[in-house]
Amino acid sequence: MHELPKHYDHAAAQKRCRELWDAGQFWHAEPDGDRPAFSVVIPPPNVTGALHLGHALNNTLQDILVRTRRMQGFNTLWMPGTDHAGIATQAVVERRLLEEEQQSRHDLGREKLVERIWAWKEQYETRILGQLRDLGASCDWDRTRFTLDEQCGRAVRETFFRLFKQGLVRRGKRLVNWDTFLQTAVSDDEVFHEEVKGHFWHIRYDVIDPLPGEPTEVAVATTRPETLLGDTAVAVHPDPAAALDAVEAELRTKLAAASAKERPQIEQECADIASRRDAVLPLLVTLAEMARAGRRVRLPLLNREIPLVADEWAKPELGSGCVKITPAHDPNDYEVGLRQNLPMLNILNPDGTLNAEAGTYQGLTIRQARTRVVADLDAAGQLLQVEDRLIELAHSDRSKTPIEPYLADQWFIRMADLADPALAAVNDGTITIHPPRYAKSYLDWLGEKRDWPVSRQLWWGHQIPIWHVADVTEPDLKAAFGDREDVAWTAAGDSPETGLPGTWFVCATTESLGLETIAGQPLTRDPDVLDTWFSSALWPHSTLGWPEATPELATFYPTTTLVTSRDIITLWVARMVIMGLFNTGEFPFHAVAIHPKILDRYGETMSKSKGNGVDPLDIIDLLGADALRFGMASMATETQDVRMPVEFQCPTCSTRIDQTTANRTKPRIECPKCHEAFRTQWATTAEDLALPRGSAVSERFESGRNFSNKLWNATRFVLMHLEGYHARELVTEGTPADNLPLEDRWLLSRLATVTAEVTTAIDGYHFAEAARILYAFAWDEYCSAYLELCKSRLADPDNRDGARRMLLLGLDTILRLLHPIMPFVTEEIWQHLGHAVADRRCPWDSECVASAVMIASWPTPSAAWRDAVTEERFNTFLAVVSGIREIRARQNVPPKTVIDVAIRCAATTMDLLEPMQAAIASMASCNLTGLGPETAGAPGAAETTAAGCDLFIDLADLIDVNAEIERISRDLEKLTGLIKAKRGKLANDKFTARAPAAVVEKERSQLAEFEHAAEKQGAALNALRQRQAST
RNA sequence: GGGCAGCUAGCUCAGUUGGUUAGAGCGCCACGUUCACACCGUGGAGGUCACAGGUUCGAAUCCUGUGCUGCCCACCA
Q1: Cβ-contact A199, A393 below 8 angstroms
Q2: Which of A195, A384, A388, A773 could in theory staple to A202 by disulfide, Cβ–Cβ 3.0 to 4.6 A?
């Protein structure tokens, strides 16, 4: 019989387990049709950098589901891969290029830059996949994909082509977030807003040749005065009176429903409207008439004449009621420009300087132009007023420079029709979202059916499969492409915003069209790439081989469950639903499980730039992958996000130092205990880098590490006692035999109950509950209760085998149930157990036990094992043991001292406790001197009650009378309070009349129990007082 | 501005359809290392369940309101 070392060595175990699983390729799935399939696609991590704790959480939960289903016999596939992450990756590589080589991407050129990014991708993909394996993720590594690989590329082109052919692709102007530093558009989620002090400038535009009775000027206001250089109109509401009425009517409705607190503010707003009727309405009415008459105003500084237009975008209830229109630099103004057929003047160069449209301001930066424009307006007497104002200014997350809104040609996908089935799928429960409240953000967002802008002015990504050609006719195109099915075209003129007669957009499913020109005109590939979410949207089917009709697609699509975090429900989940259905006719998954986000001790999201993150590998190194996973599972509750206080661990003395806002961005920290310094992620100087690195960890993973060790030692105990054990079937199905000891029937019942509870919890994505149930069962019941109980049986050769059999059954079952959460320690133990008793067999093993717990079958204990009465009786026994232990502890009785205990209890309880006498004696280190209804305590014995029994503990000279009096008095006081409350409750006729009988009965019996206990305590107290008096 | 959460022990969190004396882990206190495990054992202390009303025989749980915190979306001439 081999003996295990005292401590579980997680590093060695992880290595051995991975080798074992890889050798057997237990994670590999083939599309064999017989078994039901269970499939999951990984949310592909970005190749921008290494994995963080959020990924660890996401992938732990997926692996729990996947390992559970695999053990349950499903044909289980977990598809791994990574995401090319467009802008994010390109920005990282560009930044390095600039820092290390002082080169911009334009210096390098498109091809060279993309090569560099591929090199980066290779490096990080390797690292990410390695981290996933370190975490224990049981992905099908043979199938690893990348959103920019050739297979995904084919799917992307095919999808775009189909959309194009169905007229769902359009080209239009869109205001993009222009990063003037990187000279690229960035998406909304790569923009952060920061409140800065700014101004609100009121500017006067003069009316050209005012007629009598007309105003000579209009006032407009802006926070961006330089944009007036791009103004092409001033708008006023076409019917300001009606508009004011409508606003007021809305306010009245709101007022009627308002709370007392909101009321004054709304009343104030109503008053403002009323005063506007006198103050500005007549002017606005005149201006509206003037707009209709085609009157014009003079744009200050540039002296351009621009029209006054009547448009509902101008709100008579705000400001002057007039608004300047800059169609090329503001999204709302752009809409006005379209409606009013206004010119769109782009005044910006890509580098953020002003172009020729800005006249004398050409060449200035935005900032310089603003200063000049304001000064010039002031000098010209056109500046009416300047207010200070706080402005939410958009900044690029990548370059940290202010974003300029910039109008550019973009490709869009029309969502109006595509969105409907995706909405219906969630509304009618075809796709379920857990927890259900997250369905709302999905439905709200999709419900808007906003067109999806899919083009990006980047070099890293799937290049849009569109070619432009000008000055050709449709017959030219037909002649060039004949009846090719992989090519389609549309006249650019069909896109009224951008089209020129004779220009065409040609779309193809192939990387190249195979020709350079049509009728002598060059075909030019559109330089833009697709939004990174476009390829992500295809992930569930593109990874399975679509558009080919592969066996994988037939077997594993639709996938079963998607596990992700809530911030990408709209960006990713909704789009997968839409594109999955569009391409395959089926939704990509049946269920979406949303998990929480991990925050730091201040409730802030973790990020590398804040310095409050934790590297999962640090946790894995220090505490083990299972500890990390157990911690993650425990945190995955469904109600809220999780706060995780982070600590630095001193590499010299292992002291933990709280990570705070003050120290988290320091390059070096000195340990307050050993005074040795260590470096952090911020270290840059050679001196700092030479220091040992301090890991960022969290105590929240320690219970997982401790749990691993507990299981390890329980195993150690079991293996130590297997000498001479002959392996056999561990237990048979069906109702347990009556002659089994109480504790064995209890264990069987608990195994059945716990298995059912854990299975249900995992099925419902209640990961934290599953973790908690298993922890409590394995630790408190299996180790603290059952294993302790077995000690006396194991010492008795006649009883030994029964105990061993049940110990093995319990351990074996715990390992299986816990394997999805803690795969390494359970596998390592399984292997050791296999050496000792390879041919043990559980009822749920059809033949012999599996060679690895990873491929063992999930327990399915017979329902007949469950026995609520036995569980309750066993708790009585445990309560008696606790009662004795409590007195011992109170009285400071040394553990080695055996004390005499007598138990007075009802006859039924006596029957129960009789066979447990040896167990009570060993677990409470006592000698049972009496048991039964007639038992009495020795004179002067300490007395307590537990589970309806009176316990007399003969402490003889050991007792501390004063302490005991104090304790009993306190208990009695507490009991008196409880009794009073219960009596009051039961005296209430309404309670007894209306509450369910069972509840009333429970209260009654409880009261009786309390009263009995109080009586005993009272008597004991008196006895003690007498004793105190007599000494 | 709209929406969604959260507020329970010193800290981080559970608490299923209202019904035991509201739980766990960590931390804390006391005692304890021959006998699986000090990454441990035994016992203990610690909570007006954010606040105010309401419904109910009974509220951490349901309703209304208030406060604070966080997140998402929209908007900001």
Answers
A1: no
A2: A384
